[in-house]
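Weekly modeling sync, notes
Attendees: S.R. (lead), two postdocs, one rotation student

Agenda item 3: backlog of single-chain predictions. S.R. asked that every request posted to the team notebook include the full sequence so nobody has to chase files. The rotation student volunteered to paste the first one in as an example of the format we agreed on. Action items at the bottom.

Example entry:
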Amino acid sequence: MGRKRGRPLDGWLIVDKPLGMTSTQVVGRVRYLFDAAKAGHGGTLDPLATGLLPVAFGRATKTVPYIMDGTKRYHFTLRIGEARDSDDAEGSVTAISDVRPDNAAFETALAAFRGDIMQVPPVFSALKVGGKRSYDMARAGNAPELAARPARIDRFELIARPDADTAVFEVESGKGVYMRALARDIALACGTVGHVAALRRLNVGPFDESHAIPLDKIVASADNAPAPPDLLLPVATALADIPALALTREEADALSFGQAIDLNQLADRMPERADPRSGVVRAMDGARVVGLCRPEGGLLRSVRML
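Predicted structure, as returned to the notebook:
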């Protein structure tokens, strides 16, 4: 007998991911607890990481790309003096160093890691090389040479120095930036080696720790019945960072039917800036999000209708 489909739920659940679980395991668990038909997540966290894992149910899965594109904020702890093959505490030691940079050395080195940089991802990552996952190749003893990729770092600060072997950093970054690679590279830039000993994600797009619910609390809420839907945030919450455009009911209906709208009739209502990364605006009919649209060639066209 196949698995029954589950309830048609729509919305976001912001899980405070515990240590030791993969993001996929968390999604599977909450989907089961809510008896939900469809779920996915907005940005992977490693098993060793804790913090915000936004889980999308139903129609919210359509907005996942906009969460993935949003700014993320992390705290990571750098363990100085040991390089690991995984660039985190789970891996095997590959190099050691007696060099312990002072705070000034870190402050000087950080400048080169802000803005648009090139980053070589960790070999223990899910990137595909010739159709195979990099981490599968690395585990088999055949670690690939990964090419550097563009990354955007909005903020990178040293925020604490508990002892000579440990430094804590805060990072705000765009999509596809690896904290393990930042830890590895900032250590190397200071003439030593290091790896991530702890990592926590504090923000993802419009979501922050005030939205987060610990997994064990969700488990408790589903004691004798599926977890209550009132734990979910509305689908549109994910789009709160995208500039809003007020439409009339007629304009909203036209977009819903796949028609484009002349930008001239919207000129006095267009937000000053479209989203800098995607170029989209959030089309609103009163308090209701109609969908996401992009100004193109003098017309407003729908990108994703909700």
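Discussion: group reviewed the output briefly. The domain at 11-69+206-238 is CATH 3.30.2350.10 (Pseudouridine synthase).
Action items: rotation student to repeat for the remaining queue; S.R. to check formatting next week.
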